[in-house]
Fold each of these.
Amino acid sequence: MDRQILGARYTATAITLHWLIAVLLLGQFAFGLTLDDIPSGMPERGLYVNLHKSSGMLIGLLVLLRVGWRLTHRPPPLPATMPPWQRHVARWSHTILYLCMVALPLSGYLASNFSKYGIKFFNIVHLPPWGPDDRSWYLLFNQIHHLAALVLAAFVVLHVLAVLKHMLIDHDGLLLRMWPARTVRGTDFRSDLETR
């Protein structure tokens, strides 16, 4: 593999946040889907719903940290072999991914504050709602929450397919930009420009 391709990498902080958020979002998706199997009115439903809300809030803080890091640290350039239309699609799809990752926890948080329950943070600390118990506002933010989840899931699939194309067809080392640094055949390919 060309050392120049491997040298164009994201920072260690961006890589860590990328994979941590990816794993947490995957778990949160699975968690959210299982909530539909718990009937309303059952005591354990409130327990699990509050765990979902609490973990969503923490993921939301990590997403904000990731967005802040991305805005203050320029990403490595895309491979020179990528045609302009693919660069354009890549930029727009990343923007939509970020917007969904922000909208998802934010809409869930807002929906919780327009219900009488609020949030019981990890079922320990009760955060009472600051908004009125308003069904219409709750449903609006809840629908935005579900829509953001669907759009995010669709763009994650598109993102993974694009990475597979670059790995299996283009062979341009694109995945290595976001892969944790490692030594290949005794040579350390981490960029000297990489900052933490």
Note: The radius of gyration is 20 Å.
Amino acid sequence: MSEPAEKKAIYEDLQGIPENMTGEIIDGELLVHPRPSRKHIITASFLGGELIPPYCHAKGGGPGGWIILVEPEIQLGDNTLVPDLAGWKKERFPAREEQNSISVPPDWVCEVLSPATALGDRTKKMRIYGEHVVPFLWLIDPISTTLEAYKLESGRWFLLFACGGTDKVRLEPFQEIEIDLDNLWLELPRT
């Protein structure tokens, strides 16, 4: 006798998760995670602070032309993903959609790694982003203070640059500005 087929998760399953959790559907499986750690949130927020003013609002002489969102819900085929940050060139961003999730693959995604999600971010989510032709992916580890920048070419991810600590970098697709990585790793004094 064969085992009954497991029920694949659907979008409506996300509505039933507790408010203090984040849910994603990856390869038909509902994955529920606690809200990120403070270190994780600080890194994502501070990176957004570096990118959003010059790229979304053209502040400080920045190039503008982008929509960059924090924790957007993105529908890629049957998968519903929630990256830490994602960006679309303004002309590709669907300003109005009936559903909450965004149906157009982003032009750039950033995943801030945590011990609970790093494996899935590096394997399943990275594969899905590649299958849906997201051209750029950054993986940031706030614990080891590293950033890896990848570019999709011919259906494969290629590491463009690995950096960390106090490096100052210009990375695609945001090479017009210099990012001081030391600004992403807020170290608060212990009290």
Note: The longest helix spans residues 38-56.
Amino acid sequence: MLEIKNMTCGYDNKFLLKNINFKMNCGERIGIIGPNGSGKTTFMHAMTRLLPPKEGEILFNGKNIWEIKNKDLAKKIAIVTQDSPANFITVEEFVLMGRIPHFENFQFIETKNDIDIAEHAMHLTDVVKFRDKTLNQLSGGERQLVHIACALAQQPILLFLDEPTSHLDITHQVKIMDLIYKLNKELGLSVVMILHDLNLAGEYCEKLILLNNGSMYKNGSPEEVLTYSIIEEVYRTTVIVKENPLSLKPYVFLVSGRGKETAKDFTTGH
């Protein structure tokens, strides 16, 4: 579905993401992780055509992404950012905006089909109960669900999410990540998301891309990427990594300064 070949991109040579090579198959859930300033947002901006590469190319279904018309690309790819300034329109009006890429020439209002699709998206995300409320009346977690509903109304095959759980409590974090997992499994939606929480990334993603200092440090399964040695090397902090007894996924424990001596026993197996 998505292939990146020898890509270098950035901003006026002040920061460059260098020599990125990556392939994504249909139906995968991929998490982008890394310290602040490692290039996560730059990477997503390049993949979503907000930032042209200086070198290399990005292929979507075998075609250079920059050669695809905006409207055609918006029918296939949707992006969920952390928030938007659209605060004073209703939830239903906002979700219906996701249908705009599918409007015919000289179409200015939604058809019954558009309304039905938006309705289905609101039901999938459990925001239909807020349909008549304005976005500024909702909590951060509720607004994030509305943004996902708007993206689903586009009927994409690939969904990008920029820190979908940022600033949310654990209840909304789990609700949103469970929803993303459900959309992937039941609808076959391919997903790429930036995540800061390593445990959420390990629990919900099939593959992880770890960026560091503008390069791809490691690319693989959570078990391959989330090891204590890799995390300590990249994040410059002491951690303990153990297996979640329920999911069998790697779980990262932070270690305070006063616990570092004890941590050595765990990481060496003593």
Note: The mean pLDDT is 91.
